[in-house]
Amino acid sequence: MRGVVVPLVTPFNEDYSIDFPALEEHIEHLQKVGVHGIFVNATTGEFTSLSKEEMKLLAEKGRELVQSAFYLVGTASTNTFEVIELTKHAQDIGADYVVIAPPYYCPLSDDALFKHYTLIAEKTDIPIILYNIPSCANPLSVPLIKRLALEYSNIAGIKETIDSINHVRDVIFEVKGERKDFKVFTGLDQHFLNTLILGGDGGIMACANFAPELHLSLFKAFEDKRFDDAIEHAQKLAKLAKVYDLASSFGSAIKLAMDLRGFSIKPVLRPPYLMDGEDVKEKIKGLLKEVGLH
To answer: Which residues catalyse the reaction (predicted)?
Structure first.
């Protein structure tokens, strides 16, 4: 798995129920444009606002719909045994990978985090993508990532949603350097090209929900060694990533941008999140215009 992986939004109706027709339409569109992976129950998918049963239901529905891309399922929880249950479920339905963020809310040591991932890795066989998102959960240090990667062959890679190219560099050089098949993905649109240049494998980036053509153009230009084109696309992505600064949450930013670009995803977030209003929508509209997205 390399390239552009999309952490899907979860579409909701006005009554906060899951909008399955919109989900199907969105997945079909992403496969049509040629993304390399599709990821349900992501941060962008508001997984913390979903019940365990809904996470399983979304995983099953996504497995039915995703045919031409790698299929990833988020199975994170603050409860280790719930993570194991969700991960076994993803394995049973035939997902290609699970993505597991560390427990959030309670600060944990590297030894506690190692125990958490050890229990999951020993009780399941599906390839696991670690998810480092220190703004929302316990951070994963480079020594911890290395220890997990070298001790468990089914810990297959990491998504790095961290605004530190030095950290990503260290993971690529120190972990992937020793275990060549270990995948390193950025979670930040503005670090997509940096990560590829350093030897990473791609990105799992939320803006690809509404602008996958830009991410795909960058990746193809990089693969084809058309570096001037890759730099041009990277500069647009870096500017586009400012969308997160304009809104109150990832979900609000992405769903407003999708609404502006004509996707059928309703601008609805589940509480406790709130959608931003027209003032923010107008700012996002201006940003999209700046990068040539209408």
So the answer is: 131 (proton donor/acceptor), 159 (schiff-base intermediate with substrate)
